[in-house]
C-alpha cells in the first residue's frame, strides 16, 4: 500500500496521544527551542561530515551512528535539547551521542559487498526495518541486541528529499508478533532467540495492510516514533532539490523487559 508525502502535524495533546497510539509516530509543530538546537547541531554536523568517515552506498549515505558530539544532557554547544516532545517520553538520565544520518543525491547506490536482493529491498522497500534487531552471521539472522525506548528524529535542514518512511499501525502488528515469540522466555535471554522468520513474515503483512507514508519535517519540528514501528528511508528522487538531507536521531536503550 502506498501514500504520498505527509506534513501532518499534531497540534494538541489529544492529537499527539492518539497519533502515537494509533499510528506509532507523531510530527510535532515548529518549536523555537527545537529550532535553536537544530541550528547548533547542523553546524556541528557539517564539521563531523568533513572528517570523511562512515559513508556507505557509494557515498550516498553517511550513517553517522553516535557521531554527533552532544553532551550527556543532550545539549550541543550549550544549546539545550528541549521541546514539547519531552512530555511524551521517559527522559533518559543520560543522552547517548545522536546518530547523524545524512543522505545525498543518488541514494541508494549499490555497495560492492551488497547483494542484489539487499539493494533491491533498500530501493523498492526503503530498507524497512524495526530498530534494534541486528543482522548477525553470514546469513544475517536477526536478534534483539539493542532494545530502544523510542526514536526521536530532529531534522537539521529544510530538505524534503529522501524522507523518513513509516508504516502507520505497524507498531501494533510488530509488538504483537514479538510478544508471541518471546512469551515464556526470560527477558535476559531474548537476544539469544533468532527472530528472523517472525520478523520477516510480519513485515510482509505490514506491507500488505499498512499504508506507506513519507514523513516530511523541517528544522524546529520533531518526529517521535514508537520503538516497534516499521520505518526506513526513501530513495532520493531524481527531481528532488538540495545537495543533502540531514537528520539527528536519538534511540536511548532500555532493559529488554521494558521493550515490550
Distance between the termini: 27 Å
Using the alpha-carbon principal axes, give the shape. globular
Sheet/helix structural class: alpha+beta
Give the beta-strand count: 13
Oligomer: single chain
H/E element order: EHEHEEEHEEEEHHEEEEH
> What's the domain count?
1
Classify the beta-strand content into a percent band: 15-25%
CATH class: Mainly Beta
Task: Provide mean pLDDT, rounded.
Answer: 95
Helix percent band: 25-40%
What is the fold named in CATH at topology level? Jelly Rolls
What is the alpha-carbon Rg in Å? Answer: 18 Å
- CATH architecture label name: Sandwich
User: Total number of helical segments?
Assistant: 6
Largest sheet: 7 strands, antiparallel
Enumerate the spans where pLDDT stays under 50 for 5 or more consecutive residues: none
In brief:
Helices cover 26% and strands 17% of the residues.
Report on the architecture of this protein.
With 260 residues, the protein is an alpha+beta fold. The chain has one domain: Jelly Rolls (Sandwich), CATH 2.60.120. Helices cover 26% and strands 17% of the residues. The chain has 6 helices and 13 strands. The strands form 3 sheets. The chain has a 7-stranded antiparallel beta sheet. A 4-stranded mixed beta sheet has the order 1-10-9-12, with no helix packed on it. It has a two-stranded antiparallel sheet with strand order 6-7. The longest helix has 18 residues, at 32-49. The model has no long low-confidence stretch (mean pLDDT 95).
What features would you highlight for this structure?
about 260 residues, 6 helices, about 25% helix
